[in-house]
Design brief:
binds phosphoric acid mono(formamide)ester; about 45% helix; binds norvaline; alpha/beta
């Protein structure tokens, strides 16, 4: 039963397949999107900047007939003006879904603990499940399937990598995550993803990781909130840029993915992200299609 999305393993494989199928169907036939949020509002609370996530949520809710309400951190001042629980209770009394981008993942747990409406993680320090849904959608569009594909994530074992690991585990993708020492994917995430039946391997060499990969994925070396570590991270990740040589090692079928925003010359070379094998704009557009289908699932569409 899907009643929230704090991390992708809140979805069972059945819900995940339904969300991806419906997203693809509605993308092909936008005229068939029903107003399942008609008469409802969705709160979208942000403690960090956003381009894709905010716009995808607002467009998704509007095209489902609902009303998105964008709320900045400074407007509500959680745990200063009032507690996270009281904010969540108030939002839940007027909104069908609470979506939130937060620094600390635990804040999402606290909000969900206080309310019955679904809470959706729009990125936390630990996870970015809405991104992973759009990633899976993009991979399925490209290859026609997910089961048995090989995805190589090269870079920081961060929130994006964690949600990708759960997405891979739930969909039969074989994932290898290659990171420099000290920046590996959280062992708890690896264990949880493996317990779902997933193949999640760790690697220390990006060239080993990308061999036979269908997808080469990377993200920024310094995530939002880690800006003080930027210089140290630039040093630690030297030599880890996804460039044409690394893409050549992945084989001719491999596409390049990045959740964006990107830093050309750091985690990815311009020749790759702006080259013919990059699917990053399709991936960005799919944020809306994935979010729309997710919201419909959360309010019971098709079940
Ligand atoms: N990929 C992603 O979440 O982008 P934004 O930070 O711009 O929302
Ligand atoms: N890992 C990045 C993703 C941004 C969409 C961050 O958390 O800043």
């Amino acid at each position: 039963m899907t009643a929230r999305l704090l991390e992708l393993d809140d979805l069972g494989p059945g819900a995940l397949t339904r969300i991806l199928d419906r997203a693809l169907r509605w993308k092909r036939e936008p005229g068939s999107v029903p107003a399942v949020l008609g008469g409802h509002a969705v709160a979208a609370y942000f403690e960090k900047p956003s381009t894709r996530t905010r716009v995808s949520v607002e467009v998704a809710v509007a095209t489902l007939g609902g009303h998105p309400i964008f709320i900045r951190e400074e407007d509500v001042r959680i745990d200063d003006r009032e507690s996270a629980e009281d904010v969540a209770r108030t939002l839940a009394s007027m909104c069908r879904i609470i979506a939130a981008r937060v620094r600390a993942h635990g804040l999402l747990e606290r909000m969900q603990g206080a309310v019955d409406v679904p809470v959706v993680n729009l990125l936390s320090d630990a996870a970015h499940p809405c991104q992973a849904l759009a990633d899976l959608l993009t991979i399925r569009e490209r290859f026609g399937t997910l089961e048995g594909l090989r995805v190589a994530y090269v870079g920081d074992g961060n929130n994006v990598a964690a949600s990708l690991a759960f997405g891979a585990a739930l969909s039969g993708i074989e994932l290898v995550v290659a990171s420099p020492p000290g920046f590996e994917l959280d062992p708890d995430v690896v264990e949880r993803a493996r317990n779902l039946g997933g193949t999640v391997d760790l690697a220390a060499d990006p060239y080993d990781a990308v061999r036979d990969a269908d997808v080469v994925y990377t993200d920024v070396w310094t995530s939002m909130g880690q800006e003080d570590e930027a210089e140290q991270r630039r040093r630690a990740f030297a030599g880890w840029t996804v460039d044409a040589a690394l893409m050549a090692a992945a084989g001719p079928q491999a596409v390049f993915m990045h959740c964006l925003p990107a830093h050309r010359g750091e985690e990815v070379a311009s020749e790759v992200i702006d080259g013919p094998r990059s699917v990053v704009w399709q991936q960005a557009a799919n944020r809306m299609h994935a979010a729309r289908s997710l919201f419909a699932e959360l309010v019971g569409e098709g079940r």
